[in-house]
């Protein structure tokens, strides 16, 4: 038996000899390629252009040039032979030697042929390829429009799932049936929602601020993330919408959902509080927006109360940390911060009780350390030690001014705050 390496070498040698014979016979690589484009149809019989106020014959393009291929693809597209036009446009777009205008036209019309044939997944990818590789092209507006229409068509199953989920919360149904696969040629086989969100993000990135679909695409992406309880992604999309398109009709809804998403994505009071601080800033921006109704103001004030309770709990937990680790002075300081910054909250009331406990404990430790209080001249116990004497110009003692009589009552305790905490809005803060 011959070794495997000898067999592989002989097969490669035979292949090279076959290509050499074809080249000697005048065959080109396009003729050897099994997946070659269809033949270019002949150009129109009569083609005229208007030059200097008169019609003049348009010269025919040179054979096998990019102009001839484009003319042939346009002819197939005019005849509604979209399969042959798509193959020819694909051949033109994949040739790196072709000029940019030819590649852009070929990519756009290749996607158009795919869309008109019903192959929407591949058409959407081709549109996105045009936007991604040629950010400035004459077909950008039409490409973004078609991508948005295709993506919203794919989201029909998602809207149906949203409706069924709402019915389940209302008690009208027991289960929401998942939709994993689709055998429709116009939709992706798997992950229709993910593919739609990916294409909508392309629209929001490449369309720019002047287009009519970028703000809608951002809002849809954020809404889908909110429905799937991905609050970090929802916060990112809604916040980007409010910053990039503040005059959009979707901005008032997006800013409220962004506030809720920030609150739901913190992870609790023990984690980073920067998202909660950003949510407070968004509440201020929302209150300053034009045409804010009274109902919207009440909803925003409820969210502000939730934010205040969250920040108060975070500072209270910091004070609790210092108390557990044996630093009563630092704990007392943070309890006082909670009491002054967030009056009316449950954390402020608990901080007041902790301050009273620390005060009583430190007073008892001081009594144990100093012993019983000294006796005054009238025989009553005094909380104050004898005043020190200071020396001025030598050993001659100088008496201090008389002291005010000591108050036998203990020092005033920190002011207690009202017991009723601020209400939390529904759906936020664990409700």
Structure description:
By secondary structure, this protein is mainly α. Among the domains are: 29-42 and 62-117; 315-370 and 415-431, no CATH class. The chain contains 16 helices and four strands. Strands 1-2 form a two-stranded antiparallel sheet. A two-stranded antiparallel sheet has the order 3-4. Strand 3 and strand 4 form a beta hairpin. The termini are far apart. Residues 1-9, 26-32, 390-395, 397-401 and 403-431 have low confidence and may be disordered.
- Structural class comes to mainly alpha
Distance between the termini: 78 Å
Q: What is the H/E order?
A: HHEEHHHHHHHHHHHHHHEE
Roughly how many Å is the radius of gyration?
39 Å
Mean pLDDT: 76
How many separate helices?
16
* Low-pLDDT regions: 1-9, 26-32, 390-395, 397-401, 403-431
What portion of residues belong to β-strands?
under 5%
* Shape, per Cα inertia axes: elongated
Helix coverage percent of residues?
55-70%
Strand arrangement across the biggest beta sheet = 1-2
According to DSSP, the number of beta strands is 4
Biggest sheet features? 2 strands, antiparallel
Please identify the oligomeric state: single chain
């Amino acid at each position: 038996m011959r070794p495997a390496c000898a067999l592989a070498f002989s097969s490669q040698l035979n292949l090279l000899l076959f290509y050499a014979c074809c080249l000697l016979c005048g065959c080109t690589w396009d003729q050897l390629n099994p997946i070659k484009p269809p033949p270019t149809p002949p150009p129109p019989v009569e083609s005229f252009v208007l030059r200097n106020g008169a019609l003049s014959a348009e010269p025919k393009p040179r054979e096998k040039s990019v102009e001839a291929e484009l003319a042939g693809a346009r002819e197939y597209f005019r005849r509604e032979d979209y399969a042959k036009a798509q193959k020819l446009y694909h051949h033109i777009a994949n040739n790196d030697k072709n000029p940019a205008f030819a590649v852009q036209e070929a990519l756009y019309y290749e996607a158009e042929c795919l869309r008109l044939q019903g192959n929407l997944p591949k058409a959407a990818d081709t549109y996105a390829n045009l936007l991604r590789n040629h950010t400035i092209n004459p077909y950008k507006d039409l490409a973004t429009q078609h991508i948005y229409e295709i993506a919203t068509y794919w989201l029909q199953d998602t809207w149906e799932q949203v409706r069924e989920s709402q019915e389940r919360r209302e008690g009208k149904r027991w289960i929401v049936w998942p939709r994993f696969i689709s055998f429709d040629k116009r939709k992706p086989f798997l992950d229709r929602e993910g593919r739609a969100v990916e294409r909508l993000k392309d629209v929001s990135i490449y369309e720019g601020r002047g287009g009519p679909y970028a703000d809608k695409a951002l809002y849809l992406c954020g809404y889908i993330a909110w429905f799937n309880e991905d609050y970090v992604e929802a916060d990112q999309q809604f916040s980007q919408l409010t910053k990039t398109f503040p005059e959009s009709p979707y901005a008032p809804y997006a800013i409220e959902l962004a506030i809720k998403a920030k609150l739901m994505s913190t992870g609790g009071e023990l984690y980073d509080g920067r998202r909660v601080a950003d949510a407070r800033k968004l509440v201020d921006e929302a209150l300053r927006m034009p045409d804010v109704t009274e109902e919207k103001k009440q909803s925003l004030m409820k969210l502000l109360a939730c934010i205040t309770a969250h920040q108060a709990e975070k500072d209270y937990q910091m004070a609790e940390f210092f108390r557990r680790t044996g630093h009563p002075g630092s704990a007392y300081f943070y309890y006082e911060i909670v009491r002054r910054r967030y009056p009316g909250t449950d954390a402020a009331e608990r901080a007041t009780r902790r301050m009273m406990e620390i005060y009583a404990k430190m007073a008892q430790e001081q009594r144990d350390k100093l012993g019983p209080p000294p006796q005054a001249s009238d025989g009553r116990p005094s909380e104050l030690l004898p005043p020190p004497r200071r020396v001025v110009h030598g050993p001659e003692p100088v008496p201090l001014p008389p002291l005010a009589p000591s108050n036998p009552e203990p020092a005033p305790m920190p002011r207690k705050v009202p017991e009723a905490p601020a209400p939390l809005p529904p759906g936020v803060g664990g409700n």
